[in-house]
Amino acid sequence: CRFCSVKTSQAPPALDPNEPENTAEAIAKWGLSYVVLTSVDRDDLSDGGANHIAACISHLKAKNPKVLVECLSPDFGGDEDLVKVVVDSGLDVFAHNVETVERLTPKVRDRRAGYAQTLAVLAGAKRHNPELVTKTSIMLGLGEEEAEVEATMRDLLDAGTEILTLGQYLRPTPRHLKVREFVTPDKFEMFGKMGEEMGFRYVASGPLVRSSYKAGEFFLETMLRERS
C-alpha cells in the first residue's frame, strides 16, 4: 500500500511455532485486560497466516479467559473461509481497515486490497458470528470529499460494522503519498458526530486517532464486559 512504510520481504522467514504460547505467556505476565493483535500480510502462506493468528488468540484466551482480544486482521485475499478461522478463534473484536473512500482506494491501497473486498470481509465476519464486534478505520487528508466519507460510513454500516475510527494520514517518507489536507479538529469532530448519528456504536475521530486507540479500547472493554 502506498501509505505504509512496512517493507515487503521477498523471502519472509518461517512462522515461529512457539509464538502463540510465548505471546500468551507474556500478556499474562503483563496483566493486561485488553489486547490488540495485528499481523503483516503473509501472502506466501497457503492460509495467509490465518491459522497462526487464530492459534495466538486461542492461546491467549486459554491462558487468561478474562482478557479481551481485538485482532486487526489481514483480509486473506477476500477468502471468507480464512476469515472464519480467525473469527472462530475466540476473539472479541474483529478489525479490518477500509483505509480510505472508494474513489481513492486504487491509488492508496495495494491492488490486491479492494474497497468491496474489505466490506465483504467485515460483513462476512459479522455474518459468521453476529455477536462479534467489528471495527474499521479511515485515514483522512488524502483528497477525499465530505460526501465520500459519509458514503463510506453508510457502506460500512450496511456491512454490519459497529466501531469506526478516523485519523489524519501522515506521510511516513518522501516516497509515500503526499498529504493533501491537514484536516481540522472541528472537521474531525463533525465526522465523529455524523458517524454516531448514522448509527455506529462508537466513533473515535481526531487528528491523532489511530485504528488501535485507547479511548476506543476503553469503550469497547466496557461494552464487551456489559454484554457478557
Explain what you see:
The chain is of the alpha/beta class and 228 residues long. It is 41% helix and 14% strand. It has helices at residues 19-30, 50-63, 80-87, 105-108, 115-128, 146-158, 185-198, 214-227, and strands at 34-38, 68-72, 93-95, 133-140, 163-168, 202-205. It has a six-stranded parallel beta sheet, with helices on both faces. Strand 5 (163-168), helix 7 and strand 6 form a beta-alpha-beta unit. Helix 3 packs across helix 5. It is globular and about 45 Å long. 37% of the residues are buried.
Q: What's the tally of helices?
A: 8
What characteristic shape results from the CA principal axes? Answer: globular
| Extended strand count | 6
| Class from helix and strand fractions | alpha/beta
Radius of gyration: 17 Å
Distance between the termini: 37 Å
Report the biggest beta sheet as strand number plus sense, adding barrel if it closes.
6 strands, parallel
Defining key terms:
globular; six-stranded parallel sheet; alpha/beta
